[in-house]
Amino acid sequence: MNETIELMMRHRSVRKFKPDPVSEEQLAAIVAAGQMASSSSNVQAYSVIAVTDQEQKAKLAELAGGQAYVNECPVFLVWCADLYRLKDAAARHLPEKESYADSTENFMVATIDAALASQNAALAAESLGFGIVYIGGIRTRIEEVATLLQLPDGVYPVYGMCIGVADQETGIRPRLPVKAVLHHNHYQPAQTLEGVQEYDVTTTEYLKERTHGERATPWSELMAKRLTEPARMQVRAFLERRGFLKR
Prior knowledge:
The protein has helices at 3-9, 24-35, 54-63, 68-72, 84-93, 104-127, 142-148, 178-181, 189-210, 219-227, 235-241; strands at residues 46-51, 75-82, 131-135, 155-164. By secondary structure, the protein is α+β, with helices and mostly antiparallel strands. A four-stranded antiparallel beta sheet has the order 1-2-4-3, with helices on both faces. α2 packs across α6. The termini are far apart.
């Protein structure tokens, strides 16, 4: 263990924030740290929109399903997969050639780039004493979010991120045991399912304590429910309209 790993192991989602601002210098440092994440072929196929306008945050909170902390945090970052710059580069330098910006591979590259950069930024924010929480809810009404943020074709909002000084004490949610996710030389199905069984016991106890006995649902049962209910089925059509996933 070292200081960096200890910081990572203390991560928790924060959903209540003090009004203390995030300065422009701090925000710039957080995003610059995000930019130092690895990027496939250095394409850097992502952008981030910092929303501080109160009216706009309130609208995003509504579009994200009424998540009040989007409105309450001092700055809300929307991380976007962004092929706009790359499509422009192809049109300017090789206008005679067909562009494959709409391929599944480029969709994956842009989405992964955004994820890597945002996690770097999250760690940077936490190192400065801020708390964060990711907001996947902005994909629920993704078309309206894209319109509000004036996103051009080739850009889509992957998720949001609240940043601010935490105004709550929260426990650290336990993760799957390492043996459930770490395999050596080949995938080991029995090992990962054994890890899930152990994790079900852990999460049952965690939920029971966190909810004062009101809930005690094991993780695998929660995941079963999640995978058997349709969610955000409109996203694919939106992505295709925006120039993603056409081949």
